[in-house]
Amino acid sequence: MKAAPGPPYHDEGPLCRSGVNRHRPSDGLITDVDDDRNVFWIAGLAPGRLGIQWDFTEDRWRELRESGGSDDRLTIRFVRLADLSAKGGPGTLRFVPGERSGWVRLDVAAGVYAAEIGFLSPDGRYRFIAAAGPAIVPANRESPDCSLVVLDPVAPPPARRRAEASASRLSPWRPPMAAPPPSPPIAGGADPAWQPSLAAAMEIPEVVPHNAGSSPQRTGPLSDACVAPPEAGWPQPIATGPGTGSEEV
Amino acid sequence: MAIAHLGLVLHAHLPDVRHDGGGGLEERWFFEAVGQCYLPLLGVFERLRRDGVRFRLTMSLSPPLCAMLDDDALLRRCARHFDALTALAIAEAERNRRDARIHRLAAWWRRIWEERRGDFERRGRRLLPAFRELADAGHLELIATAATHGHLPLLHAMSGAARAQIRMGIADHVRRFGGPPAGFWPPELAWTPGLEAEYEAARVRWICADAHAVLLADRRPRYGTFAPIVCPGGLVVFPRDAELARRVWSARDGYPGDPWYLEYHRDIGYERSPEALGALAPPAGARAPVGLKYWRVTGPADAKEVYEPARAEETARRHASDFVDCTLKRGERAAAAMERPPFLLAAFDAELFGHWWNEGPLWLEETLRRVAECPALRLTTPSEYLEMTRDSALQCATPADSSWGEGGGHETWWNERTADLWAGLHRAGRRLRRLARRATVNVPAVHAAVRHFLLAQASDWPFMIRHGRAGEYGRRRWSAALAAVERCMEAAERGDTDDTAGPALFPDLDLSLFKG
Lengths: 249, 516
Prior knowledge:
The complex is a heterodimer of chains A (249) and B (516).
Chain A: H1 14-20, E1 39-46, E2 49-55, H2 58-66, E3 73-80, E4 92-95, E5 101-107, E6 111-120, E7 126-137, E8 150-151
Antiparallel strand pairs in A: 1-2, 2-5, 3-4, 3-6, 6-7
Chain B: E1 4-12, H1 27-50, E2 57-61, H2 63-69, H3 72-95, H4 100-122, H5 128-136, E3 140-145, H6 152-155, H7 161-177, E4 183-185, H8 195-201, E5 206-209, H9 211-215, E6 229-230, E7 236-239, H10 242-249, H11 274-277, H12 309-335, E8 343-349, H13 360-372, E9 377-379, H14 382-388, E10 394-396, H15 419-437, H16 443-456, H17 460-467, H18 471-494
Parallel strand pairs in B: 1-2, 1-8, 1-9, 2-3, 3-4, 4-5, 5-7, 6-10
Antiparallel strand pairs in B: 6-7
Helix pairs in contact in B: 1-3, 1-13, 3-4, 12-13, 15-16, 15-18, 16-18, 17-18
C-alpha cells in the first residue's frame, strides 16, 4: 500500500510499468489508498529477504471471510517484476495463516517485487483483497555488472566565509549539472572485463542465511498475469505447509 | 603529503524521553549521555583546540536530542542528577573506607562527577553553543539527520513519510545551526534505492552508508569502500570501512571488550539497597544503573577484578595507536591501487564514547592527536574530501538496500514483535494525510497530531521492542504517541482547540509535507 517510488530501477518489468505505477482497477494491483484502516504492505528486509504484512480490521475481516467459502485459504501471491513478460510471468503463491493480521518473511532472489493478498479457493479462483509494491530485495552478493560509469557529482561550492559559518563549513549545495561524459582519472572503465582491484581487501558482510521454514514454493508461469482480471485463474501452489524445502523464487 | 584520508563521523541521538513533571527513569538516559558522553567529548575537542592540534570531525545531533539539550526544565533535573551522583560517590567513599581499592575508586568517581558538574554549570548547562563554536572554528562539520530518527527505508513505503523526516530534519538543523548541511546521517545507516530522489530534492550532497550498501551496489564498486560512489542523480554515498568499524564497535573483539576497561554492566545500582542509593534509588521494584562502577571487564566470566584507571588509560592509548596504524596500513594498501586518495570512513554512535565505553573519549583524543602527527594520514570530512578531489569523477552506481543493523537489512526494526507498530503507523499516516489536505480542519490540532506522529516514527521504539531492552517502555511510548495522534485528529475534526499543544518539537512545522 504505497506509492510507487520514482526511478531509477534497473529491472522494472511490465507489471511495474503498467500495473503498479498506473491505476488498473481491473486486476486490482493497486491498493485502495482511501482505506484508512486496512494495511497490506511489503518491503525488502535484508539481502535475499522480503517482508510482507497484512492487518485488517475486525469488520473487514469478518466481511472477507463471510463473502467466500469456508475452504478458501488466505494466500499471498508475489511476483518478481523482472520475470514478467508482456503477457505474464512466474509468480509465487504462498499460503499464510488465516488470521486477520500477520507478518511473514520470505527468502527470495534479489529483485523488485510486487505482492497481493487474497483468498484462494479449492477450484483455483483467487479472490483479490489488496496489492502492494514495488519493493526492492537487495542481492547478497556482489553485482556481476563490472561496467564503469563515472560521474562528476557536483562542482563543490567554495567554502563559506567565516562570518557566515556556523554549522556546515560549506555553502548550500547546488543541484548537479548534467553528467559529463566519462572521464579520467578513473582508469580502465572501457574494459567490460574489468574487475575491481580492491575486492580482496574488502570484508563482505555476513548476510542472512536462507530460512528453509519460511521459503516460498515455486509455481508455474502465470498466464496473462499482468493483464487479465483475477477470474482468468491463478496458479496453484505446488506444495503447501512448512518443511517442503527451500527454494529461491 | 597525505596518502590516505580518514573521515570520523559521530552520530549523537537519543529518543525524546521527556516526561511531564520529570521523574521518569528513562530521563536518566539523557543525564547519563550528557555526563558520560557529550561533556567528555566537548572536553576532548576543546583540549585539542587549545593545544593547537589539527583535527576535523563530522557530527550529527538529532533534533530530539537538540530539543532536550535546549529544555530548561530537563537541564535542571540533569543538574540535580549530577548532584545526587556526587553525593552518592561521597557516601560510597565513606562506606568503603575499609576496602582501600574501592575507596580509591569511589573517590575517583567523586572527583570525576564534581568536575563534570562544574563543567556543566560553567557552560550554563548549555552544550549546543559549544558544538556550534567548534563548528565555527572549523573543527566540526555538523550535518543533519532525520527529524525523529525514523527508519527511512521502511518509512519510504508510506507515502511522503521519509520525505518529511528528511526535510524536517534539515529544517531543524538550519534553524538551530544557521546553515544548510552538506551531509546527512541516515538513521541506522539505513538505505533503500529510491531514497536518493528524496535526498537530492532536499539538496543533500552526501550521506553515509554501511559498507555492504556500496559493496553490493548495482555496479561493482571499483574501489570497494575506499572511495564514495555517486548515484545517477548526484547524491554521493560514503561507505563505512568495515574493518575500522569492527575494531571499535564489535562486541566480541572490538577495543571496548579489553579486559582492562571498565565493565559497563556491573554497576552499584544493581548491588546497593535503595536506601544506600539515596536520591538515585529507582522506583520500588526496579533496578537501574546509576553510573558508578568498580569493576573491569576482566573476561567473559562473571567474576570481575577491580578497575584500575591507570591501566585502562594505558590500554586506550595503545588502542589509539593500533587504530591509527591499521588505518594507515589499509590506506597505503588501497592507495597503491587507486588513482585517487583513498577515503576511510569510521562512523560511530557518539554515545559509545563514555557511556558504553568509558575510555572511549580518551581513545578518541589520543587517536586524533596521533593522526595529527602522522603526515601520511589526514583527518578529513566527507565534504572536504569532495572538495579536494573535485577534479576527479566518481563511480556512478546505486547502493543496495542496507542498514547497520543485524543481518545488514531492516529486520531489526520490522519483525514479528514490531509488526503491529508499523500497521499503526500506516493507518495513522493515511488518516493524517487526508486530514492535512482538508483546509477547514483546526490547524493547531493537526500540527499537534503531526508532531506526535513524528515521535511515533522513531526507530528507537522498534529497536527496544526487538531486543527486549526497555521493550515495554518502547511499546508504551509508541502507543502513547499514536493514541495522541488519534486524539488530536479527532479534536481537529471536531474543531476543538484544547489539548493541541503536542510535544515541544519542530516549532516551524510545514504541514504541506504531510499532504502526500
